Amino acid sequence: MPDTRKAHLDTLAISLLLACCMFWGFQQVLIKATVTEVAPVFQGFVRFAMATVAVLLWCLWRRVPLLPERQSQAARGALWSGLLAGALFAGEFACIYIGLQYTQASRLTVFLYCAPFWVALILPRFVAGEGLVGWQWLGLAGAFVGAALALGDGLWHPAVQAQPLAWLGDLLGLTAGLMWGLTTVVIRSTPVGRLPPAKQLLYQVGVSTAVLPLLSLALGERWSLDLSTFAWMSLLLQSLVGAFASYLAWMWMLAHYNATKMSSFVFLTPVFALLFGALWLGEHITPGLLAALGLVAVGIVVVNRRPRAAAA
Question: What PANTHER family has UniProt attached to this entry (predicted)?
Fold first, then answer.
């Protein structure tokens, strides 16, 4: 079966990616503002539980078949690879939530957003045509340097020295980035990638809904749904816009566009997080942040630039 994915990102893909990254950056600030009322892992559980219901309703409305065909080897392959993608997705968020107990969010975010490097390194081993040429690697590196520069103040903040287990949080952040990258690789290189995007997402949010409450209980978090209007609005936004609409759009784009080039856009998310933090929390926008925005923008343009032969 020929690969019908587009080799380059068009206007629709770029618009969707920018919208997703902008909301994901906003969502980090939203989670931070909500954590005083709702424990982090429990917050993630409620988020994915609500998203699971939304995805199920979407599948019913769109008549997406939920049960695999019997005696079908392809269906069995999709089931196991879907569960693997779901387990990696849940593991990513488990590492994020646990890691934030030991290190600063800015440090963990830098390691988390190494995910495109894992995709670029691993995916070409399984899928032809996903590799980058030399100048595109420079663009990817430039985008990462921009994200790291934007978060530089957090990396060298004196408070980091007061956390003796910061290295553990950093390692968990790097592991979360690896799991994110591996989730993309599994979706692009196994039978689950041939399922409808909504069903791919259902595996991920469904497995997370099953795993995260166990983790929350193990951490001794307090469970309560007696929340303020703000907390409920935050959970609804995280669930319906974040875990449902934006992830469904991401799954759809993975089925139609080059995953390596898509992944370069995720470097915008921490930059958007700092921008929303400045607007909402009153944090200062420094010259370093403006330089970071320039590096990220240039990096994305370089990664997605068409080769001369292809553009002719």
Answer: EAMA DOMAIN-CONTAINING PROTEIN (PTHR32322:SF2), INNER MEMBRANE TRANSPORTER (PTHR32322)
